[in-house]
Design a protein that fits this description.
Elements (H helix, E strand, L loop, with lengths): L15 H7 L7 H10 L9 H11 L5 H17 L23 H14 L1 E5 L12 E5 L23 H6 L3 E5 L13 H9 L3 E7 L20 H11 L4 E6 L7 H4 L4 E6 L7 H9 L39 H4 L17 E7 L3 E5 L3 H4 L6 E2 L2 E3 L9 E10 L5 E10 L11 E10 L4 E9 H4 L2 E2 L5 E4 L1 E7 L2 E10 L6
Parallel strand pairs: 2-3, 2-4, 4-5, 5-6, 8-18
Antiparallel strand pairs: 1-6, 7-11, 9-10, 10-16, 11-14, 12-13, 12-17, 15-16, 17-18
Protein name: Fibronectin type III-like domain-containing protein
GO biological process, one term: arabinan catabolic process
Organism: Gossypium aridum
Amino acid sequence: MFDFICIRYIVSDCDSVGVMYDTQHFTVTPEESAAATIKAGLDLDCGPFLAIYTDLAIRRGLLTVTDVDMALANTITVQMRLGMFDGEPSAQPYGHLGPRHVCTPDHKQLALEAARQGIVLLKNSRSLPLSTSRHRTVAVIGPNSDVTETMIGNYAGVACDYTSPLKGISRYVRTVHQPGCSNVACKANNLFGFAEVAARHSDATVLIMGLDQSIEAEFKDRTGLILPGYQQELVTRVAQASKGPTILVLMSGGPIDVSFAKYDRRVSAILWAGYPGQAGGTAIADVLFGTTNPGGKLPMTWYPQSYVAKVPMTNMGMRPSRGYPGRTYRFYKGPVVFPFGHGLSYTNFKQSLALAPTDLSVLINTNLFATKNYSTLSSNAIRVKHTNCDSLSLPLHIDVENIGNMDGTHTLLLFSEPPASVKWSPNKQLISFHRVHVVAGSKQRVKIDVHACKHLSVVDEFGIRRIPMGQHSLYIGDLKHSISLQANLEGIKN
């Protein structure tokens, strides 16, 4: 009998327990890996490893029956909450759910909305959105122009239906289709001439390029960041031939070095669609023709190809060191193709601080000094667990004004930067984001709470989380706001 009610269980990634022993050699024997994972809190193994070796771990004294019972209780409790032991499944609250409940109109609309929100406008030289009256014929070119399964990426179920980019664009205007390459590997350029002719005789050209799971997937890492094969040549030649604006749409799961297109004036706009799912073609077309105003932001830094040679696969360090540039926007300071958080809109937003505090007093538990725990205040930084975090909240009020002519959604990205004297800290880090829809010509006020313990603290080289005292900087776009933190030694008393 257990004297608590558990409302969750912890499950492994598939085969990860086996990988820990077979590949990573974390333990000498497989039963030791089984015991280590269960004792660490794992309740369910996605794979056969625990089913094979847990009994042996018990017989060897590495694990107790109570350890296994706890894991079993966590798993079964969730099953009980789902009504799996309450009789006829169809009579239970979720027992009636089946395949017919997957492809409902609401769920299809959700897939479309997710695809729309995920599209990022990387470049726009005033060529987008396209016009159905001025761009009556559009050349749709590229190896990803008429794909379906490519759009759902890895680890997806069976799609309800697909709308390819070609099909989506064809709902708006007349299209002329040329793949240019037989697939994304694009190992030949013998079809480029047909693509150039299509672009030359169309009012606008949309190139849908990028990657698929033959290039990037689990167990299939890329060795470079440029477009595969002759794709770059196809983009350049079509852009030269195009009578109207040339739009580059990229499908990929990771960054691509498209510096050539970024600086090519003949490529007037670039969109990144990721792998947009079953409704990806509709979403791409809606953005191209302005039915949807793009508001997505890049979730990763887009590095140049030269970056690859500087980060060996054997070095997973985040922080830079001699000859090593570091990883992610938090530590890397070198050149980028597009930065983390980048994303344009068809309208313009203006951000301003309406209300923001400029200082904060951080109370220290004075009883810690009575016990001579001088590590509380070290290098002008306070250990998080030695202050009252609940009282260290800073409200920011930001006005977001749409000064353009089109309704749009804007995502506020709030970054923090610690005092310059702090070592072992990131250059900056994203601490909050907020998505807000603003009608053209109007303004919305957004409140963001900055919690000092969570958002302004850093982890030092000893793994201790501390709040640095001094001047912290907050950034929202071009806005910068400083907050001064001071230690208060007349603080908390137990």
